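Changelog note: in this version the structure field was regenerated for every chain. One regenerated record is shown below for reference.
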Amino acid sequence: MGIVAFAASAWGANWVEYDAGPFKVIGDAGDRAARVRLGELEQLRHTLGAYLGKDELTTVWPIAIVLFANQRDYAPHALPQPLVEGPGSDVGAWSADTPFPHDLLREIARRLIDDNSERMPPWIEQALCDLMATIRVEKNNRISLGTPPPAGELSPDRMRGFAKLHMLAASPDYNTKVRVYVNNLQQAGDEASASSNAFGIDLAELDKRAAAYLAAGNFGPVPLAGTPVILDRDFDEMKLTQDAANKWFAALEAKGEDFPEDTPRWLMKKGTRETLEDAANANTKWAEPHAALAKFHADPESRVKELKIATSLEPRNSDFWQELAWAQEDASQYSDADKSWKMAERNAATDQDRISYHKSRLGLEQREVQVAIEERQHKATVESDDLERVRKEAEARIHAAEAAANKSVGPVAPATKVYTWWNGDEGQKLEGSLLNVECLPGDAMKLTVQPASGPAVKLMIRDMQDVAVTADKSENRFACGAQKPARQVTVYHDGKADSAQGTAGEVHSVKLP
């Protein structure tokens, strides 16, 4: 109701949208005012791109500024921060009768750095934002940078960074080489190398000169040549309907907390697999839906695929690199995981995060070894279980075959073993000491018996089950090998010598004391 009431009361003027690059200015402050403000944003984009070594800076989301005619009209729509999330863009607001505030320009510079550059040391990124916030557009597309910010706007640390970058931008000794310096910082983040490569001096000397420059306090606007812009011709213009204008007011009133249904950020906030896929398709530059979609995949390879897209779209996001590294470890892609941990470390926003990622990378080899050990143990367990399964299956088949055979034959009376060739203590008798038992395959064995006189006699037992053994004691079994001590035995055998075996006969029975 508030939006409709406002539109109905303020709808005497036409609302118009002007577009250039990633920027939109929407306003009713008049054609000239909107084009001048859009020109300032374009000059900021061009100047920052020159420092970053990028010809055309873009953003993941368009940046839309709702420009009111004056502070009175703007005040009811002031935002809690310079830019808020809108349904399909980032949205800010200001008035045409006052220069863009530093915090808004600083935040726009921050978005351009985040979306276009490699990670640099935090101080230089902050200094670039603070310097870009001082941009002013003069006649004939002449621009200036570096008018000192009001006292207290920057902390002492930020003021040192601002002064250092101001010196590099203002001095003929450095300003043609700032691009090399910043490019070196993007590639490796090593300021010592950047200082040496760009200016031919070591970092200590550069810092000494910057400290003297700050102490002198002789800051002034630095004139620069801007990009050619013809305000009356170079920007796209589109008159808005009341409904279209109302959508911009709704975005301001929502303050980044709520979005119309089916818009990209509503789809992301909904958070289902289907809406995340729609969100990713709605803005193909947007990494966040892909990182969220990875959580819906159970298999590591699919998570890796989504997270690779996320890191390619937002390479400065260390959280995405960390998630990719974990997914690659789960997929046993250890070489790739090592590279991802390095990227997480390289793009860490704080020293504490950098240390954490570094520790995780150092632990990668240990985790890889542990996984290999667990896989081998699992494989051994599986093989053991498989062998046991095969053994049991074989036993089951044997038992089944035996049962089938028994069933086909029918009942069989128990057999009674009959020894037709022996009756009691018949046969040749040999008494003496049992010296040795030689165990042969099956249940066969040779006994060596030493009689009271004469040579030792060897006798054959072909099957121990066919021999009757009696003993006065409980032990009635033979142990293989030399008998220590020798035992007294009485042996009955058939007296049939076997020259091949070297035996004097085959044993029928044995008596042990």
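Spot check on this record: The CA atoms of residues 87 and 468 lie 102 Å apart. The chain has four domains: 2-225, 261-362, 375-404, 428-512.
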